[in-house]
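I am writing to request your help with a piece of structural work I have in hand. Here, with my thanks, is the record as I have it:
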Amino acid sequence: MLNFIRRSSFLAAAAIVACGGGDSDPTSAKIPGEGIAAIDTAMLMHHIAVLASDSLMGRAPGTPGEEKTSAYVEAQFSGMGLKPGNPDGTYIQKVPLVGITVTNSPTMTFAKGGTRTSLQWRDDFVAWTKHVSPSASLRNSELVFVGYGVEAPEFGWDDFKGVDLKGKTMVVLVNDPPVVDTAVFGGARMTYYGRWTYKYDQGMKHKAAGVLIVHETKEAGYPFAVVQGKTAEQFDLVTPDKNMARSDVEGWITLDQAKALFKLARQDFDSLKAKAATKEFAPVPLGVTASVTLHNKLRTVESRNIIAKLEGSDPQLKNEYVIFDSHWDHFGIGEKINGDSIYNGASDNATGVAGLLSIAKAFSLLAPPKRTVLFISVTAEEQGLLGSQYYATNPLYPINKTVADINMDGLNTWGKTSDIVVMGYGASDLDDYARVAAQEQGGRVLRPDAEPEKGYYYRSDHFNFAKVGVPAFYAGSGITFVGKDSTYGMQKRAEYVANDYHKPSDDIKAGWDLSGAVQDAQFYYMIGYRVANAPKWPEWKPGNEFRAVREASLKK
């Protein structure tokens, strides 16, 4: 997903003023000017134009568009003189995926006594299965409201309280419980307990037959139209034991249908939602059953992470690794909107891959840094961060020798900014490198995410590296545009969300100004260059949720 659209009200966030460091500070080591100058608008636009062209057919995994995308990115890496990133001598890490497409337009039925209500496919609910099976169903499965579906012993929180969900279907709210205490769930900041992926994992853990998440636009961070996109082919990693252990049916229902369901159950949605925000909440059987049958088309796909390597120059440090990553995939060819069915994904994420290739080019023009740098364009981000998950759990280079990950999920196409937003600000020492790099770009400042409750730090590929302990950096574009009034950034954001996000119209626009994309790509380059030469590794800050995982991995 494109990072810029993932925030609002940035002007309400206090700017964090950048500060420099002394000569002995690794965050302020000199950056070669040739590398910075090598990243320019012409190079970025060239790559974007190729990657977002109709000939690549929307870059969906498992399609000819993937083959063309892979060939282009490989050719660019090879032409730069970068070595194949896979020790087998190729630029490819094969990623086994299974594609599952619901072929019918099912109706979901809620029943209580003699009363039955029907939910219509796409309009009222969206569902799928991760079972590798020609069909999946719920048959008179009892619905149980489990609040936010959270088990967090460190906060003394348990929404399940021993309930037996085997054969039943969870109805669950998205996001964390909205508690006031900043010591619980990080206050306003969403934790991983709030992510929709966690809710489905909870269904698997509790052996629930189904999981239905109630969609609320504010809490989810996107409209139901985004969820409707999941009616197309869904991918998962090929892990047979885990696939079949998941709930039979996973999905979302609209807020209106959730309220109607609770009314059918003689319950009040708003009252139960309020109770779910307390530790005292206990699961509520609704006395309503759900039935639905999904018919599936199955195919296995050998997708690709595309990886290049610039070997480090220091014999003592070249077996340590700094990663730049960006996802190459988008949605391929899908539902026609305004006469167009190709989801080109120009902003999301041809710009990010263009940034990755430009940074790789900048590194290739100079003497190698001390550490080895890996450039990874991952697959299936739009399917649930699958390509990065596969690399993080099947790494080609040791995770406990991986120093940092820098992720690019979309670049700014609207001009230069005087600030830049850092997701998860304060997570690691990488923010220190970012502060100095921003300051050197004419005094730019860092801003924290103004919507920490949306959990954006958990929504892009860097998160899979963080989960295995690697300090991971993820920034969005700035919001204060140079030479523009204070409303310009939010206006452009609103236009993009309304008109282009995850739609065929996400294409190159006549009014694009890639000076901001150059600015941000140079910023990422400066961070990575210094980390690749620093005398010590960046660390997670004390108290960070990933610090313990890192410390454990370093003992291996």
